[in-house]
Amino acid sequence: MMTEKKMNLPDVHTELYINGKWENGEKERIAVINPATSETIAEVAQASKKDTERAVVAAKAAFKTWSEMELKDRVSILHKVGDLLEEHADRLALIMTLEQGKPLKEAKGEIQTNIESIHWNAEEARRIYGETIPAPNNHKFEVKKQAVGVVGAITPWNFPSSMIVRKIAPALAAGCTVVLKPASSTPLSAIAIFELFEAAGLPAGVANLVMGSASDIGDVLTTSKDVRKLTFTGSTKVGQLLYEQCGQTLKKLSLELGGHAPYIVFADSDLDEAVDALVKMKF
């Protein structure tokens, strides 16, 4: 007879991460629930609007130093994060499985994707080239690519680790600083990644983590003039609201909305194989 092996949550912070410090938020903590057992596995700090505003201030203050840091040093820190992700892969996967519910094998696959993404973005930072454009009368136009500033990021629950890395890694590589709001049901995966940011020597204020009310945090990120770009993955309805709010400050906006995609099956295809592939991709 097979017995079920209980998986215990590894040690992980439960606080906000603002300006290089772990701290409790102003609001009451909320429980993180294991969807497989319905048990509470942690209680996580919640940020108020004031906490989020402090995170934005920290990110803005850190921007000049981070964006002007020697490129080789910035790249080195990102590679260190990638190395730490690989070193802690099993721990990160277990945290994800316990709070989000996906099979451990899939969680490990997601972490592997993160490792590759971090290293890839670190190297792409070396190739942020400008352009020289010929113009009439012996003139030349020079195009320089510069970091936009503070980036606000809002991520979903379904890929609680890879969606964070997919948004933050290119931002950090480009020289931007970040304020992240993860999904309320899967904050521990975000916290575990930020622990590695800290261990890798990411300077204080470069990456900040706030958990809490979507309306409170979202309001600050969309209306603050200091946040120059917002990246969001989630529902179309929320995306429309963010689009409207960001218009007040003319900030750049990246949206990935509505997780449905067309699946085309041609008349001459193997229908059974197509159905199997569709089920695997969707579920």
From TrEMBL:
GO biological process: gamma-aminobutyric acid catabolic process
Pfam family of the protein (one): Aldedh
Transmembrane segments: none
Residues of the Aldehyde dehydrogenase domain: 22-283
SUPFAM superfamilies: ALDH-like (SSF53720)
GO molecular function, one term: succinate-semialdehyde dehydrogenase (NAD+) activity
Keywords: Oxidoreductase
UniProt xrefs under InterPro entries: Ald_DH/histidinol_DH, Ald_DH_N, Aldehyde_DH_dom, Aldehyde_DH_Superfamily
Keyword Transmembrane annotated: no
Name of the protein in question: Aldehyde dehydrogenase family protein
Species this protein is from: Candidatus Jeotgalibaca merdavium
